[in-house]
Amino acid sequence: MSEDTALKLNGKLWIELNGSKLVGPGRVELLERIRDCGSIRQAALQMNMSYRQAWQMIEDMNTRLDAPVVISQRGGKGGGNAVVTEKGEMVIVEFKSFYKKFQQFLSKHSGSINL
Q: Which residues form the HTH lysR-type domain (predicted)?
Protein backbone atom coordinates (compact mmCIF):
# COMPACT_ATOMS: atom_id res chain seq x y z
CA MET A 1 0.00 0.00 0.00
CA SER A 2 1.17 3.52 -0.67
CA GLU A 3 1.54 6.13 2.09
CA ASP A 4 -1.84 7.74 1.33
CA THR A 5 -3.69 4.40 1.37
CA ALA A 6 -2.03 2.96 4.49
CA LEU A 7 -4.34 1.53 7.11
CA LYS A 8 -4.82 3.73 10.12
CA LEU A 9 -6.38 3.03 13.50
CA ASN A 10 -9.22 5.30 14.55
CA GLY A 11 -11.59 5.32 17.46
CA LYS A 12 -13.80 7.24 19.81
CA LEU A 13 -13.20 7.56 23.51
CA TRP A 14 -15.58 8.12 26.38
CA ILE A 15 -15.76 7.17 30.03
CA GLU A 16 -18.63 5.05 31.29
CA LEU A 17 -20.06 4.56 34.73
CA ASN A 18 -22.21 1.46 35.34
CA GLY A 19 -22.36 0.78 31.59
CA SER A 20 -23.60 4.24 30.64
CA LYS A 21 -21.65 7.08 29.02
CA LEU A 22 -20.58 9.68 31.58
CA VAL A 23 -17.86 11.81 29.96
CA GLY A 24 -16.78 12.21 26.35
CA PRO A 25 -15.42 14.87 24.02
CA GLY A 26 -18.78 16.63 23.65
CA ARG A 27 -19.39 16.89 27.38
CA VAL A 28 -15.85 18.14 27.96
CA GLU A 29 -16.33 20.77 25.25
CA LEU A 30 -19.58 21.81 26.93
CA LEU A 31 -17.80 22.20 30.29
CA GLU A 32 -15.04 24.28 28.67
CA ARG A 33 -17.54 26.55 26.96
CA ILE A 34 -19.52 27.01 30.19
CA ARG A 35 -16.28 27.87 31.97
CA ASP A 36 -15.38 30.40 29.27
CA CYS A 37 -18.75 32.15 28.95
CA GLY A 38 -20.39 31.52 32.35
CA SER A 39 -23.65 30.34 30.84
CA ILE A 40 -25.15 26.95 29.99
CA ARG A 41 -27.46 28.61 27.45
CA GLN A 42 -24.61 30.41 25.67
CA ALA A 43 -22.44 27.29 25.69
CA ALA A 44 -25.31 25.30 24.17
CA LEU A 45 -25.85 27.93 21.46
CA GLN A 46 -22.14 27.88 20.60
CA MET A 47 -22.35 24.11 20.16
CA ASN A 48 -25.62 24.21 18.18
CA MET A 49 -27.43 22.14 20.80
CA SER A 50 -30.58 22.84 22.73
CA TYR A 51 -30.42 24.27 26.21
CA ARG A 52 -32.39 21.24 27.38
CA GLN A 53 -29.81 18.82 25.97
CA ALA A 54 -26.94 20.77 27.55
CA TRP A 55 -28.74 20.93 30.88
CA GLN A 56 -29.43 17.18 30.79
CA MET A 57 -25.74 16.44 30.14
CA ILE A 58 -24.68 18.63 33.05
CA GLU A 59 -27.36 17.22 35.35
CA ASP A 60 -26.30 13.67 34.45
CA MET A 61 -22.67 14.36 35.38
CA ASN A 62 -23.67 16.33 38.50
CA THR A 63 -25.84 13.45 39.70
CA ARG A 64 -23.57 10.54 38.89
CA LEU A 65 -20.21 11.94 40.02
CA ASP A 66 -19.33 12.40 43.67
CA ALA A 67 -19.46 16.20 43.33
CA PRO A 68 -21.16 18.59 40.87
CA VAL A 69 -19.26 19.69 37.76
CA VAL A 70 -21.34 22.84 37.25
CA ILE A 71 -23.23 25.04 39.70
CA SER A 72 -25.79 27.38 38.19
CA GLN A 73 -28.13 30.10 39.33
CA ARG A 74 -31.33 30.82 37.49
CA GLY A 75 -31.85 34.11 35.76
CA GLY A 76 -33.28 37.04 37.57
CA LYS A 77 -32.61 40.73 37.70
CA GLY A 78 -28.97 40.32 36.65
CA GLY A 79 -29.48 37.11 34.68
CA GLY A 80 -28.32 33.65 35.59
CA ASN A 81 -24.83 32.26 35.56
CA ALA A 82 -23.04 28.96 35.62
CA VAL A 83 -19.68 28.09 37.13
CA VAL A 84 -17.57 25.03 36.41
CA THR A 85 -16.53 23.63 39.79
CA GLU A 86 -13.19 22.23 40.86
CA LYS A 87 -14.59 18.77 40.07
CA GLY A 88 -15.58 19.98 36.60
CA GLU A 89 -12.08 21.32 36.01
CA MET A 90 -10.65 17.98 37.11
CA VAL A 91 -12.94 16.16 34.66
CA ILE A 92 -11.70 18.40 31.82
CA VAL A 93 -8.02 17.89 32.68
CA GLU A 94 -8.27 14.13 33.26
CA PHE A 95 -10.28 13.45 30.11
CA LYS A 96 -8.01 15.57 27.92
CA SER A 97 -4.92 13.85 29.32
CA PHE A 98 -6.39 10.41 28.70
CA TYR A 99 -7.62 11.46 25.23
CA LYS A 100 -4.12 12.61 24.28
CA LYS A 101 -2.68 9.23 25.35
CA PHE A 102 -5.43 7.47 23.35
CA GLN A 103 -4.56 9.46 20.21
CA GLN A 104 -0.85 8.69 20.70
CA PHE A 105 -1.67 4.99 21.04
CA LEU A 106 -3.69 5.03 17.81
CA SER A 107 -0.93 6.87 15.97
CA LYS A 108 1.82 4.61 17.27
CA HIS A 109 0.03 1.39 16.38
CA SER A 110 -1.48 2.41 13.03
CA GLY A 111 1.65 1.30 11.19
CA SER A 112 1.44 -2.20 12.61
CA ILE A 113 -1.84 -3.20 10.95
CA ASN A 114 -1.43 -6.04 8.45
CA LEU A 115 -4.71 -6.91 6.75
A: 28-89
